[in-house]
């Protein structure tokens, strides 16, 4: 089978190299715009962040806020070239590895050689994956070079991957002394409580289920009222029946569903008291990092960066140097791993569909269309929370190209699905004839 692999590899390598040259060139040229974008981000942010522009850009997976960091810019600007165009190309390319030989009749000569159909299928699949790996090695080198050249123009950002337990404990222990000018005020308190509230409402489904209430639905129902908790508490006490109905609508446990008016009022008063106590402790405090940093490390790290206290923190807490970066290599690697797996899966799907189908003349075109539909369907789905569950029906929905995380579970599920489809296709391929239509 190695001889067959070698022949297959050499036969199509020129096409892949030409494609890499085109996409690699586009990636490099796109990254050269980073300096201009970074210098005019404030103006672009105000223009591109409108509802209409967000919808238009969302169709191409372009996130304006993500473009502010170097890795975010690479991910946002180059996802279309590397993952969308690359994914569709390799899906089409994989389909052509079978379809073209069937159209031209060369598959019939291959069948006369001492190779089983399993060997033919596996060798083509291995060649395809080898091409994809080589393509991404090239993209990695081009991307790394581009990011290194643009690094001097990048603003500092928080490297959340560095926020491990030892880092958090070190900042809690010595941070207040290092950044003694960080004092709690009303604005910071409101931002902190809003962040904590939103964090609790974006927790995992398992955590929210334990809480006994559909918090995501509740926050949508409360709307802008959550921006002013003090006023919201007063409204709840003045008209408890109205808010009880809202809470019971999103209750998932009997504790909330069977809550009486007296219990509701008592709970609201308790939360009001806790909020007032927290506010009294927070506003004017010089021990913000000691007392509150562990509750939301990423939030306070951003505050330190925004207030220009980064150097002071690093001077007092040397290990905090890893917390701030202009170029997050971990995020860059995570972006490319996500893209690579999606492209590899799409290539496998293209090869599999072509192997299982008897539509020799139109296989490749169908695969091309399916790849494009997958990409834009995922983009449209992301614009509406109601359609969120549909993302699992497109390979692009399993990847997180923000650079913030690497969800191996999702990626593993995607690879398993791809393997199952390939196995089923191989079974059909073994039963097919090679007669051209």
What does this structure look like?
This protein is an all-alpha fold and 437 residues long. The chain has 21 helices and two strands. It has helices at residues 2-31, 34-39, 41-48, 51-58, 70-104, 106-112, 117-150, 165-178, 186-201, 205-211, 215-222, 229-238, 240-249, 254-257, 261-282, 288-292, 297-306, 310-316, 329-356, 363-381, 408-431, and strands at residues 157-158, 324-325. It has a two-stranded antiparallel ribbon with strand order 1-2. Helix 5 (70-104) runs parallel beside helix 19 (329-356). It is globular, with a radius of gyration of 27 Å. The relative contact order is 0.14. Mean pLDDT is 82; it is low at 201-205.
Task: Present the secondary structure layout.
Elements: H1 2-31, H2 34-39, H3 41-48, H4 51-58, H5 70-104, H6 106-112, H7 117-150, E1 157-158, H8 165-178, H9 186-201, H10 205-211, H11 215-222, H12 229-238, H13 240-249, H14 254-257, H15 261-282, H16 288-292, H17 297-306, H18 310-316, E2 324-325, H19 329-356, H20 363-381, H21 408-431
Antiparallel strand pairs: 1-2
Helix pairs in contact: 1-5, 1-7, 5-7, 5-19, 5-20, 7-19, 8-18, 12-13, 12-15, 19-20, 19-21
